Amino acid sequence: MRNSQIPLQPSTLFSHDYLKASSHREQALCGNVEGWGPLSPDRFDFTPCFLDVWVSVVAAGGVLGGAAAIYYLLNYRPSQPVKKNWHFFAKLVRHSTIPPSIMSK
Fold it and tell me: Does the structure show a pLDDT above 60 at 78?
């Protein structure tokens, strides 16, 4: 460790330029000064580039799994009959107004 840390003592927020990008990249596809890691030389933590890999893997898995679920539902499940009366259209209107009302707060 470059600067020794005392356990259970609070440190400053984003100490050691945690999210600082370097002007020149020492390693491919990683702009952080700590590099790929996996362990940070300054903190008792993983490096941001190492964490980004796992976040990206989970996100890609979600996209692929969601695409597979949509494919399965469209091709292998029969569509359900739905009565298109006033109740159906009232729910459509209500659900279309929920996202704007949440984002306006």
Answer: yes
8 A C-beta contact, residue 17 and residue 25: no
Bridge partners for 73 per DSSP: none
**Residue 85 banded pLDDT, cuts 50, 70, 90:** very high
Please say whether the beta carbons of 47 and 33 come within 8 A.
no
CA angle, residues 12, 14, 17, in degrees to nearest 5: 115
pLDDT of 56 higher than 90: yes
98 or 92, which is more confident? Answer: 92
Q: Is 13 within 8 Å of 41 (Cβ atoms)?
A: no
Measured CA to CA, the distance from residue 105 to residue 99 in angstroms comes to 11
Q: Which pair of tokens denotes residue 3?
A: 């600067």
